[in-house]
Amino acid sequence: ASRFRGGARPRAPNSMEDCCVVCAEPLTFVAYGPCGHRDACVECVARLRLVMEDKRCVICQRESDVVFVTRAMGDYTETIPAERFDGLRRRADDGELERDAVLGMFFDDRATCAKIRELRGLRCRACGDASAEHGSLKALRAHLREAHGLHHCEVCLEGRKVFVSQQLLYTKQQLDKHKYGGVADKDNAFGRDGFTGHPSCKFCKKFFYDEGQIFHHMQSAHETCHLCRRARPDAYVYYRDYDELERHHRKEHHACLHPDCLAKKFIVFVSANELKNHEGVEHGHAMTKAERKEALRLNDLGFTVGASGGGGGGGVP
């Protein structure tokens, strides 16, 4: 039986409060844990729990091993107190509820449970109703390839956070065009016009799902020149490794070649005067008296350098 939250005013039909906070689609069935936040639809909660391996409530971030799924009826939606969640397993054993043990979800509607099981399943869409459940993604992909000549995009499998049953299938020719951006994807599945293919790292020869992923990769796996970035903030130029970046430093800027600074890395300056000033301050003991005097004279002209060992590049005149 549904339970009415006494004193609460019924919400207007089709208001934003009646939409899933994740996908913004109208709520039909909600899934919630002991916290009682009934703001996400059953499909989004199932996807979070299986694909993202995230069992937290989307509102309060409380983690829950089990969730209850029921029809969304606004203020009349069935509400189970937190202390009664331990009884969901018993109700399922008694046949009162349907259970999906993989997702930790309990349903009071058999058809909705069957729909979610189908969504998360590893069945061949090309075989239709005759398809059997495959034991693993590897087995499903082998069947698709051998029986139908169809392929998943490996980049999408990793980066597009949907159920395997919702991933697109391609022939070999279609897959090449998809990956390199030869044609737009069917049904605009990526939610953006003018899809130009998955971006790739020219150093690693690896494809990434979108610009955000490749940006994170380039920032963490490769090098960029902080002096060039400072001069041209909108230009993103990367180098394979520090050895390649150091060659750029020596060719285009003024790098300190003292062994201590070479070991610290990134000790490089915009101008020759800044470099001389740095050498006088940091390495003056290795200079002749005249060289040190000349280097320190530049400091009197208004040049500044970073703190010793900072590795942050030269000062600004």
Automatic annotation (TrEMBL):
Domain (RING-type): residue spans on this chain: 20-61
Pfam families linked: zf-C2H2_13, zf-C3HC4_3
Keywords: Metal-binding, Zinc, Zinc-finger
GO biological process, one term: protein ubiquitination
PROSITE patterns: ZF_RING_2, ZINC_FINGER_C2H2_1
Annotated GO MF terms: ribosome binding; ubiquitin protein ligase activity; zinc ion binding
Highest taxon listed in the record's lineage: Eukaryota
InterPro entries: Znf-C2H2_ZNF598/HEL2, ZNF598/HEL2, Znf_C2H2_type, Znf_RING, Znf_RING/FYVE/PHD
Zinc-finger found in the keyword field: yes
Name assigned to this protein: RING-type domain-containing protein
Natural source organism: Micromonas pusilla
